[in-house]
Specification:
The chain starts with 7 loop residues before the first helix and ends with a strand. The protein is 45% helix and 14% strand. Strands 1-2 form a two-stranded antiparallel sheet. By secondary structure, the chain is of the alpha+beta class. The longest helix is centred in the middle third of the chain and has 16 residues.
Length: 51
Amino acid sequence: MDMTRPDTRDLALAMDLPLTPNGIQNVRAKLKRLTSRGILIETEPGLFTQP
């Protein structure tokens, strides 16, 4: 796991959430919500960082 550029799956794993398609999709939806609020930016599909 490369935590310098964590992807959605890495974040789900770090938060001890299930690595099922539904669990990963829930994390992705939360990250997208944070992106729409300007808290995060999505540098590439599935890769998020702080602005």
